[in-house]
Known about the structure:
Layout (H helix, E strand, L loop, with lengths): L14 H17 L3 H14 L5 H14 L5 H16 L3 H19 L12 H14 L8 H15 L10 H4 L3 H18 L5 H16 L4 H22 L4 H15 L8 H22 L1
Helix pairs in contact: 1-2, 1-9, 2-5, 3-6, 4-6, 4-7, 6-7, 9-10, 10-11, 10-13, 11-12, 11-13
Amino acid sequence: xxxxxxxxxxxxxxxxxxxxxxxxxxxxxxxxxxxxxxxxxxxxxxxxxxxxxxxxxxxxxxxxxxxxxxxxxxxxxxxxxxxxxxxxxxxxxxxxxxxxxxxxxxxxxxxxxxxxxxxxxxxxxxxxxxxxxxxxxxxxxxxxxxxxxxxxxxxxxxxxxxxxxxxxxxxxxxxxxxxxxxxxxxxxxxxxxxxxxxxxxxxxxxxxxxxxxxxxxxxxxxxxxxxxxxxxxxxxxxxxxxxxxxxxxxxxxxxxxxxxxxxxxxxxxxxxxxxxxxxxxxxxxxxxxxx
Length: 291
């Protein structure tokens, strides 16, 4: 399928792409341990994509078109018709103002020369949908109707194509509304970008920490993850000490004592960073056991 050309597409004014860029930026900051930057990005998302804003409405519409998969072109055509009516119902002046304010805040607060160049899965379809939304609500005679019709055909084809849906862990379902949406998308970005760099336990810790930070009122899931790493690593060390030299046994016991002294009552970036290292050690010791 050939999607719309991105030559004349303004990605900065594409609500769905802006959310993708923000979420990816936040994920990178979180994994890098930059709590201040991740908090800044999250604040921008909450402020500009809050429920009821025109930007949030457009984002939800575009996101639905990207993620929906239906059984036939006839059903897809009906969805396109409904989407066209929804796009035309938005307050265009208010929407454009909200987009301009968002762009200005991203540029001023993040100061990231690569912000708009982050890779996004299905970028061309993001651009196609963004272009269509603009066409549908335009009253200008300059709209190329033949081009619009071609893009609509491409969207119908996209909606009619079966795509695999990645199931998220239950913890993302516990976070309501916009926070749930942010966290679900963010976890997808973490998985995509750091699939080779993080082991499964480390990714679980990142997910739980991000979820805990978004809710700001409950870190039970995160603490359970950390305590699990703690107890598993203690068991691995005890097993290791049964069949090693006295020198290595002393080193291992030192690590064990330090690990047992770790408290998960108050979890911050430094605690998470240490447990990411513990999770790596646990993974390496497990691999040695398998040999």
